[in-house]
Amino acid sequence: MVRTAHHIGSYVQWVQYEIRVEGQLGTRWSAWFDGLSVTAEPDGTTVLRGVLLDQPALHGLLQKLRDVGLPLLSLTQVPPTVP
Questions:
Q1: Residues 52, 75 contacting (CB under 8 angstroms)
Q2: What is the pTM of this model?
């Protein structure tokens, strides 16, 4: 099943990202980061993972990371998981 999102009059495939930042956040941050899963890793980093609808949503998320002072370590587009 291919998920689609309405985007400026057409349908596009959703994109899933994995974003790794320095520092550890609790799962309570998930709502603030647009519903992405938040996983604190043993190495002192945090991984945010989930679907973003478009490039403006990605840029908005990156701005939130900047605003709370979390250094970005990596940003990777990953294959979507099947629900």
A1: no
A2: 0.77
